Amino acid sequence: MRERTIASHFVRAALRGAERQGYDTGPLLAELNIRPELLSEPRARVTPEQFARLVQRVWEELDDEYMGFGRQCSKRGTFAMMCHSIIHCETLDKALNRGTLFYGLFPEAPLLHLERDGDQARLVLDTSDLWDPDHFLTESLLVLWHRLGSWLVGQRIRLLQATFTYAEPPHASEYDLLFPGARQFHAPRTSLLFQARYLDMPLLQDERTLKQFLKNSPADLLARPDGGDSLTSQIRRLLGRDCSHWPDLEHVARQLHTSPQTLRRHLREEGTSFQELKDHLRRDLAIYHLGRDSLAIQDIAAQLGFSEPSAFHRAFKKWTGLTPGAYRTHQAD
């Protein structure tokens, strides 16, 4: 769902490498209609399109696909050349191994390697050569390789586990979109664990589809939220976009073949609630519409199921720290 928004944390984190290189990010934020005030509000969020464009522009300005976080830069086009080098491989196993060998040719690059153990496989990332205080590049590389592999075989690779050598970060609540599945922090290695059967799958892509894929990738891969098969993502899909006709919890439970009590318990275990899920979906839909001029704020309020605009104003400020009008102004200035 393209309306699923991205926390302002990731914008701040994405810019830190450029700022470390002495790059003035102010003009770039202005170009993308992202006000600095928006980034100072922890609850604020941006659209996937804004974030994808931000990543692309940082690559262009620094000529570095590592965005200033590596010991050496990775010139623009490196990812594309790697994709061309693997696109004719017969299986995902050969493609991933060739891809990791490709990046191994570059001194001080963050290295990956693939391990296979029985019916499980693990993609391991060595982050020891990175300056990555917010773990932004670490997260990006894992997300990128997971989603690239899924695209190559034409189906989403279900993660069994994601492990990280560092402590659970403050933005860990966003990891449901990045690494759906079990997660472990303070782990011996940073890695993705999945079923080895995916490695034997043939590549379903070719040079023709790769050309289209590379028009927006890898920025689009990083910007596209992916809740996978998590319970929260399943519920969001069941709710849909029409807030005035949202099913109640009992109906959703029946759709998921469980009881309302069990559903509530599972949501508590994931650190959320049915009401919070509805609020987050309303928030994301509101941000989506506020970024476009086609609807007046009072019309957005009505479409989101609010009885009056003032209730929408209060709710939106609670969600993001800004009023709808202020948010739209920040987007338009």
TrEMBL record:
Domain HTH araC/xylS-type, first and last residues per copy:
229-330
Entry-linked InterPro entries? AraC-type_N (IPR032687), Homeodomain-like_sf (IPR009057), HTH_AraC (IPR018060), Tscrpt_reg_AraC-type_HTH (IPR020449)
What's one GO-annotated cellular component?
A: cytosol
List the keywords (alphabetical).
DNA-binding, Transcription, Transcription regulation
A Gene Ontology molecular function term for this protein is:
transcription cis-regulatory region binding
> This protein's superkingdom?
Bacteria
* Identification of the protein by name: Putative HTH-type transcriptional regulator
| Organism annotation | Zestomonas carbonaria
